[in-house]
Each structure stands twice: as C-alpha cells, then as structure tokens.
Design goal:
Elements lengths: L4 E3 L5 H11 L4 E3 L3 E5 L11 E4 L3 H4 L13 E3 L2 H9 L4 E4 L4 H6 L7 E8 L11 E13 L4 H8 L2 E5 L2 H14 L6 E5 L2 H4 L8 E4 L5 H12 L1
Parallel strand pairs: 1-2, 1-9, 4-5, 4-7, 5-6, 7-8, 9-10, 10-11
Antiparallel strand pairs: 3-8
C-alpha cells in the first residue's frame, strides 16, 4: 500500500492540485490548513503603469476597488497567477517563472515604470531596480487553522506533504510540533528552496521541485512516492 500525498494549500489552488495529481496516479488527500481573507485597503493617490502580483489572491480579494484598476496590465509571478488575472478580465504584460524578484529584474531599463503591488500580509520581500517604483497595498491575509484529531491521525500514519508556500509550511511545521506527530514518517515536497527552508529538521526527507510550479512539485511527489 502506497503512502498518501497531503495537500495543505487553500482553494482555489487546492482543487487544481488534486485534479492534476490524480491524473498522474497519485493518492491525494485534501487537507487545507488556511484560507485567504479580504482586508480593507485604500487606493494610493498615484498613477500606475501596471499591477504586480505574487499571488492571484492579491487581485481576487481586492473587492470593489478592483474596478478602479481596470485597464492596468498585470506583471505576474507565474502562469497560474497570470491565468487567474486573465480570467478576471486583466491583460498580462509579463509572466514570470515563479520568482517575483526575477520578474522585476527582467523589466527593461529603457523607461521608468510604476507598479501597484497587491499583496497579502505575509509576502516575499523584493528589491525594486532603480527604474522601478513599487507601491504595496495589503488586500488579504491568510487565516491558518489547527489540525483536527482526524487529520492528526492521518498524518501520523505517514505520507508526503506538499508545501506550496513558506507561510503554510511554517504553520504546518508548528502544528506538527504542537500535536506531537512523528516527523520521521512524513516526507516534505517543497515548491522552492525558500519554502523548504521554512520548516525545521527531523522529517523523513525534504525534496525541492525542479522548477517552482505545481506540475514539477507533483512530479517530485511521484518520485518520492515510488
């Protein structure tokens, strides 16, 4: 009997990962430990050339003020974020490969550019190049949940846990410590080295996806599974 793969990311990414993983033959268990909550925010009194997105949640939870951003192109961290922004009616100026800093560093220095970053309370620190101005507003926060008795029992039997973000990885790490689950029976598959570095030691194994995207993370889990 093969070990299950636990998916702790929130919706809407949770369902997409489950569907993709099942198509690969993985035995996935949905175990969302967080959810995004909208935060009240104010539109800065400035003119912007585009929207910087490290997560689709930044735009998804912008509320009624999102209408004021119509017409601004999106600079997205990756394809999934770009696709979500496109579905919300926004044009995409640039799609990165999973690292927001790399998106900024790729912007041509031929002209100044001003970007509005829609972000969560927990966000990746970035450094703007000299020709890029960034105004950041917080549109959402992640609400983390404690593990239930049933989830503790499932995890205690062993398996692989997918880590899609540093915040969820750190929360999961704390919950495992709090509940006394044996780390030696759990392998972790992380989307990036930074995310892998968000957990402490003592796990059965920790792997990092070849590229920071969901298909690569699931391929890693498949390799670890076998």
């Amino acid at each position: 009997m093969t070990a299950p793969v636990f998916v702790i990311r929130p919706e809407p990414g949770l369902s997409a990962t489950i569907k993709r993983g099942q198509a690969m033959g993985l035995d996935l268990v949905a175990m969302p430990l967080s959810e995004a909550e909208q935060v009240e925010w104010q539109m800065p009194p400035a003119t912007f050339d585009g929207i910087l997105l490290g997560s689709a949640n930044g735009l998804r939870h912008a509320g009624a003020k999102r209408a004021k951003l119509a017409g601004l192109p999106v600079y997205a961290v990756g394809e999934a974020t770009a696709a979500a922004a496109r579905d919300m009616g926004f044009d995409i100026a640039l799609t990165g490969a999973g690292a927001l800093q790399a998106v900024l560093d790729s912007l041509p220095a031929s002209r100044p550019i001003s970007l509005l970053r829609l972000a969560g309370e927990e966000r990746v620190p970035i450094n703007a190049p000299a020709h890029v101005t960034i105004e950041t507003v917080t549109t959402y926060r992640m609400a983390h949940h404690a593990l239930t008795a049933s989830q503790i029992a499932q995890l205690g039997s062993g398996g692989i846990v997918l880590l899609h973000s540093a915040a969820s990885a750190a929360h999961f790490d704390k919950e495992v410590l709090r509940t006394g689950i044996d780390r030696n029976v759990l392998a972790l598959a992380a989307l990036s080295p930074r995310i892998a570095g968000s957990v402490s030691d003592g796990w059965k194994s920790v792997g990092v996806a070849a590229t920071p995207d969901d298909p690569a993370l699931l391929s890693l889990a498949l390799d670890m599974w076998h």
